Amino acid sequence: MDYRVYTPRAALLPYVKCYWSLDSGDTPFMPGVERVFPDGCIELIFHYGDRFRKYLNDAQTVLQPRSFIHGQIRSYIDLEPTGHTGIFSVRFQPAGLQAFVAMQAGELSGLTVEPDSIWGNDGDVLQDRILNASSHAQRVQITETFLLQRLRRNTYSTEALGYCIQQLHQSGGLISMDSLAEKANIGRRHLERRFVSGVGMSPKLLSRIIRFQNMLRLIGENRLNSLTALAYEGGYYDQAHFIRDFKEFTGLNPRAYFSENLAMARFLSSE
Fold first, then answer.
1. pTM for the complete prediction?
2. In a 10 Å sphere around its CB, with 0-12 CB exposed, 13-18 middle and 19+ buried, how is residue 53 labelled?
3. Is 121 part of any domain?
4. What's the pLDDT tens digit per position in 37-81?
5. Which of 35, 118, 188, 204 is 20 to 30 Å from 258 by CA-CA measure?
6. Which CATH number characterizes residue 16's domain?
7. C-alpha distance from residue 200 to each of 40, 73, 97, 195, 238 (Å)
8. Residue 243 and residue 250: Cα distance in Å, rounded?
9. Dist. CA 46–CA 67, nearest whole Å
C-alpha cells in the first residue's frame, strides 16, 4: 500500500488536520476485513478506486458511496476492500468541519453522508473533479479551492473549541472537565453543548479517545512491553480501566490487538 499524507495550507490548518491518500497500485487484491478505530476526527472520503464494504452491527454489509463525509465514530467499524484500493481523504480537525457546513457536526455523528446532501450541486461537482483528477497534487488543489470558497461564506469560528481541544491533547486526555471549563472560562454544561454540536461528541469522550490513540502510538513504537506499563503511561487508574477502554474502542483486548494485522487502522487514524 502506498500511503501518503499532505499538509494543508496555513489558512486551512485550524480546520483541516491533513489530506491523505492510499493506493494499492499493482498489488494483487487481498480480501479481508480491516478494523478502523475512533480518532476524534471527521473525514471526507473519495473512493477513486473500488469502493469498500462496511459491516453493520447485525453482520449485514453495505457498499460505501463513491464519496462521503463520515461523522464521528464512537467505536470501531469494520471495512473490507472489494478490489483496487484508491482513496483520497480530508481529515478535519475535531471541530473543523463546522466551518464548511450549514448544519451542526453533531447531526452527522455515526452517519455516512454524500457531498451533495451537504453542499448540493457544489458537492456533485467536487466529487466529479476529485475522482477524475490526474494526481493527488491536483486533488489537494481542487479540495483547497473548494474549502476556501466555503470558508469565506461562513462566519463560524472554531477558536474557542480549538483551544479546548488543544488543552485535551496537551494533557494527553487527562485534564478534568471542570478544569477544562475553567481554563476556557465557560460553564461546564455550555462546554458540553458546544462540543456535541461542533465536534460531534462530548469533551469527556474525546479525551478518552485521545488517551486511547496515545496508547496505540506507544504500542506502535514498541516502547512499552506490558499492559501494566501501558496503563500507567497512559494515565489510567489501573490495568482493568485501560483494558475496558481498549475493548470499547477496538472490540479486542490489547493482547489480541498485538496479534492482528490491522493495517487500515493505522492508515485511517490520526497522525
1. 0.89
2. middle
3. yes
4. 999 999 999 999 999 999 988 779 999 999 999 999 999 999 999
5. 204
6. 2.60.120.10
7. 9, 9, 10, 6, 28
8. 10
9. 4
